[in-house]
Amino acid sequence: MNDIPSLLAELTLEEKASLCLGSDFWHTTAVPRLGIPRIMVADGPHGLRKQPDRGDHVGISGSVPATCFPTASALGSSWDPELVRRVGEALGAEARAQEVAVVLGPGINIKRSPLCGRNFEYLAEDPLLAGTLGTAMIQGVQSQGVGTSLKHYAANNQETDRLRVSADVDERTMREIYLAGFERAVTQAQPWTVMCSYNKINGVYASEHAWLLTEVLRDEWGFDGVVVSDWGAVHDRVAAVAAGLDLEMPPNLGVSDAAVVDAVRSGRLAESVLDVAVARVLRLVERATVEDRPVPPLDVDGHHALARAAAAECAVLLRNDDGILPLRPAAGDTIAVIGEFARTPRFQGAGSSQVNPTRVDVPLDEIRAAVPGGVEVAFAAGFGIDAIDRDEELAAEAVALAERAGTVVAFLGLPAAAESEGFDRTHMDLPANQTALLARLATVTTELVVVLANGSAVRLAPWEAYGKAVLECWLSGQAAGGAVADLLLGAANPSGRLAETLPLRLQDNPSYLNFPGEAGHVRYGEGVFVGYRGYDALDLPVSYPFGHGLSYTTFEYGDLTATAGDATVSVSCTVTNTGGRRGKEVVQLYVGDPQAAVARPVRELKAYAKVELDAGASTTVTFTLTARDLSYWSPVVRDWVLEGGVFELAIGASSRDLRLSTTVVVDAPPPAVPLDGMSTLQEWLADPIGGPLLRAEVGTGGILGNAELLPVIGNFPISTLAAFPGLGITHATVDKLVAGPS
Ligand code: BGC
What we know:
Elements: H1 4-10, H2 13-19, E1 41-42, E2 65-66, H3 72-78, H4 81-97, E3 102-103, H5 127-142, E4 147-153, E5 166-168, H6 171-178, H7 180-189, E6 193-196, E7 200-201, E8 204-205, H8 210-220, E9 226-229, H9 237-243, H10 256-265, H11 271-289, H12 300-314, E10 316-320, E11 334-338, E12 356-357, H13 363-370, E13 376-380, H14 392-404, E14 407-413, H15 432-442, E15 448-453, E16 469-472, H16 480-488, E17 502-503, E18 521-523, H17 532-537, E19 542-544, E20 555-564, E21 568-577, E22 583-592, E23 604-613, E24 618-626, H18 627-630, E25 632-634, E26 639-641, E27 645-654, E28 657-666, H19 681-686, H20 690-698, H21 709-713, H22 718-721, H23 731-739
Parallel strand pairs: 1-3, 2-12, 3-4, 4-6, 5-7, 5-18, 6-9, 11-13, 11-14, 14-15, 15-16
Antiparallel strand pairs: 7-8, 10-16, 17-19, 20-21, 21-24, 22-23, 22-27, 25-26, 27-28
Helix pairs in contact: 2-10, 2-11, 3-12, 4-5, 4-12, 5-7, 12-16, 13-16
The structure holds beta-D-glucopyranose.
């Protein structure tokens, strides 16, 4: 390929328009006469979905076999960027082996509601966690010379009416919650492409949103790649080009290209604007084709082993009464494995991310292979996965088996039909036939362990007391069956932590009253109080808090220090493995600003580290907080504002298991808030420049000397007060104040 400026000079207007559209479902457009090849893109976020033949974006047509790694629901719970990077490298290597130039992932949308049908494809309810893990995934994939598509940009937090709904979000919430992860991933990992979402944001389609696609993404964050549409997200191709959308997929051939050509010819779209988009597409093609490293053969076994190790890192041990796990069976013991999911595992979700796995581990087989000789592992299905009613025969058989077994392991979960891309759930409950079976099992055994497979959070409160242990495995990929055997029998030590709060009731979720909206709008009424930020603000009890997860060993925290430096705070503590075996702890640092000018969450995750320690070993963990970590987005200043004062720092094993805390005083100049005639008397008085100016102008004869009246009319704009006689403020005073110090 020639250099981009020369190509731009040679391309016809029609060719330029065609380069900004795909040529089919999965390919960009080639211009053979100028040696411009086409490149292929393919889903997806946790495994390649390369469709060699006919394309569709909902996973209906088949795809070539690929390793199905743990889905984002699971990877998010790893709290381990290093692991996610390794998964990304493997995914990138598979894409290279299949000659796919860009992998359409990761998806880092915030889990706003547990009902979102696509939560299994998203990482966390917290932007730091989603952003750091998304960054690691991009770095891993792109280290293989393969691009990524960071998606779905932005505020695509539900499936209901996803192609039209307007997410109505205030700018502070957008910046602090819904954009922060994208900002981190773009600035730290430079994805080759960003995929705009289907929905509108405050009434404007993401695909036509100039503020989103150009002002924020490119001008503020420095994104230099291609913005690609989600499949079918473009409605007005000319408006989309003008807003900064470079590549439309799949191509609306004969319509979009013609519209762009017409718009340029009629002067409605400057050709220079089109040229910028074309240049970005050409740069993407160049990036994807300069690589001439040999294509590695697909490492099916190695990647399956990685998928197994990763799945083990992601499972969250929610409870483990009496240390029932790991199981320690001896010859002569019987373990009852109950639940159809043990034989027919559910390990991924439905829709565009659906992978055709290279192989699938069956939990029952893996447990049988892992137990010592002489241990019987007996199975009963207990329920039909898609059956709504209880199957009495299956249930009775399971109860009879449980009665004679030493330990019962019940594999429960959501049927595939309960959660998918394309629709949201209406409740958080496990199917009634499963929970009813659990209640019956609990009447014949106390030694009951529940293993869960679900992509979105389920409600545990109605049934969890029936068991001693609950192991949440999420949808953990094709090797989830092997991983669960490793965890149950102690070959692996659980180290996953919740990336989302598990509420006692759906009604407690902060988005409850505003999800999924109506009449084409969903109002993000909870503002920044998403997930644990909301539960903590209301001090609501939850089943399990954000960040929670147990291990087969225990950890102690000590020696917290916090030192405020020049615009940074350095925080450190020691962590000691006080239990009997090697294990991993996720050390979490939460920050609160108790006296802020805006409503801020009680605490927010600002740093974390996963550390591995031998029994008895200690390590020191150090975090550095930047000014940005302590700041909020001010809609008045239209920037991040660090308010000086006292900040609360807490370190712990979850958002509600805070082991150490301290405060630190941070110095910062007061934010420069522009004052005008509509600024209130109080705002003027509080301002470091405006206050003295006002006092000098008005003196103490009028309102400023009236201690009783001041609090009553302090919230009047000063231009309004100018109309009130006797207060010492005239229109001339206001003009003088607004003009500023001479
Ligand atoms: C999904 C995207 C996906 C695309 C291509 C869309 O429906 O929202 O996540 O990458 O299809 O399959």
